[in-house]
Amino acid sequence: MAKNELLEKGVNRIEWAKTHMKVLGKIRERMVKEKVFEGLKVGMALHTEAKTAVLALTIQEAGAEVRLTSCNPLSTDDSVALALNEKYGLETYAKKGQSNKDYYNSLNKVLDIKPDYVIDDGADLIFLLHTKRKELLGKVKGANEETTTGIMRLRAMAQEGALKFPVMSVNDAYMKYLFDNRYGTGQSTMDGIMTATNLVLAGKNFVVAGYGWCGRGIAMRAKGMGADVTVCEVDAIRAIEAKLDGFAVMPMREAARHADMIVSATGCKDIVTAEDIKVMRDGCVLANSGHFDNEISKAALEKLSKKHRKVREMVEEYQLKNGRKVYLLADGRLVNLAAGQGHPVEIMDMSFAIQALCLEYLDFSAQTLEPDVYDVPDHLDDMVARIKLETMGIRIDRLSKGQQNYVRSWREGT
Questions:
Q1: Nearby residues of 331 by Cβ (< 8 Å), 6 or more positions away
Q2: What pTM value is reported for the model?
Q3: Radius of gyration (Cα) for the chain, nearest Å?
Q4: Which of 3, 101, 2, 88 is nearest to 48 (CA)?
Q5: Could you give the 3-state DSSP secondary structure of residue 12?
Q6: How far from 13 is each of 167, 192, 263, CA to CA, in Å?
Q7: How far apart are CA 285 and CA 302, in angstroms?
Q8: Distance (Å, rounded) from C-alpha 285 to C-alpha 263?
Q9: Is 153 left (phi over 0), alpha (psi -120 to 50) or beta?
Q10: Residue 265: C-alpha distances to residues 148, 236, 352 (Å)
Q11: How far apart are CA 305 and CA 307, in angstroms?
């Protein structure tokens, strides 16, 4: 595609997203008017596509100097990155298909701005600041973290006393995980799988590894499209929940024997291993919706294969030594972004509204917060929820004074 066509495509995608991100739009109006981020430098590592662009531009329009790159080598929309650089004047270093070296070079270019705050997804920016870019730590006042995997890393850092600035756990806000992780991941994972394979889901034996909020969403959507869904879990409570939600529950080794498709969404490593691959049926499709590409063992696929080849743009066929064929989607990276367009616009509208408000909250509170991982304040969650209802044209009841007194009192009984 010619550069001018790619640029036009990116601009159109950003403007489409902006039109449909009405919650962030309401918040942006106030932030831009008040220039709430005037004089700040903000470094961002998020999946660089249209919805992210709207968040980055909101922060820029509210007064900050912003630099952006992706948090995954395969999750960039090159048309959006080009548009941000050439149309909107926002420095963006992301490019789809980066090597590991180029990916980290881009992260370092973002940090070269010497940010006051960082917005991260997976904690790679924050990790760099605490390892190879320690000279910048004294400048950074705080950060937001977008996803489950990043929060796991950051809580481990905080527990060891290694975290040097406060971090807002955007991932754990109700208005993020209840919708983004569940409905966003559910829909976008199906989008990525179908775009990559052009296969039907109805009638497939569909295995979901992990029954957190992302896994719940994937299982729900797969079931809704007619698949027979099995859940693999290590958490006893979640396993019971999956069973009562109507899904078969069993270990991965057993599930892999009859699976037509396996999707991992755990935030942990080594979910699909060599022993699982050995028992898979011919034609099994493997995909990952977790943040990093270590959930499905690519090393095991290589070792167990006689040869492999690309059969579609995002499908690698591995011919195993036992004669069967197994297909890996999107190089084991986030299938919903590497092969699809990521979460729906209206879903990311809520998540990125939380991001913008948390950045404002951090700038107001950072001097009083110790280095740790902090939950999003309830009033910000409630604000986003009420704006979302308003944009949907939905009204809800309110407690009367008598009801408010009742729920706060212990005196009334039978």
A1: 74, 293, 298, 316, 338
A2: 0.93
A3: 22
A4: 88
A5: helix
A6: 30, 18, 28
A7: 15
A8: 8
A9: alpha
A10: 10, 17, 21
A11: 5
Distance CA 388, CA 8 (A): 30
Among candidate residues 169, 80, 181, 180, the one with its CA nearest the CA of residue 126: 169
d(CA 75, CA 333): 9
- Asked if residue 284 lies in contact with residue 326, where contact means CB atoms within 8 angstroms, the answer is yes
In the block, tokens 């932030």 appear at 31
Output DSSP code: residue 399.
-
107 in Cβ contact with 125 (< 8 Å): yes
CA-CA distances (angstroms) from residue 86 to 52, 71, 73, 102, 199? 16, 21, 21, 21, 38
Task: Report how far residue 378's alpha carbon sits from residue 385's, in angstroms, rounded to the nearest whole number.
Answer: 11
Q: Kind of pairing, strands 315-320 and 305-312?
A: antiparallel
Q: How many CB atoms lie within 10 A of CB 163?
A: 21
Question: How many angstroms separate the CA atoms of 204 and 229, rounded?
Answer: 8
Render pLDDT for 92-145 as a digit per residue (tens, 0 to 9).
Answer: 999 999 999 999 999 999 999 999 999 999 999 999 999 999 999 999 999 999
Task: Specify the 3-state DSSP secondary structure of 117.
Answer: strand
Which pLDDT tens digit goes with each residue over 194-225? Answer: 999 999 999 999 999 999 999 999 999 999 99
CA 41 to CA 323: how far, in whole Å? 55
Residue 223, amino acid: K
Tokens of 207: 């295995």
Q: Which DSSP letter does residue 280 get?
A: P
What whole-number distance in Å separates Cα of residue 306 and Cα of residue 318?
Answer: 8
Interstrand relation of 325-329 and 315-320 (parallel, antiparallel or unpaired): antiparallel
Token pair recorded at residue 178: 């209840």
Say how far residue 2 (Cα) sits from the centre of its chain.
Answer: 30
Residue in the structure block whose two tokens are 């489409």: 16
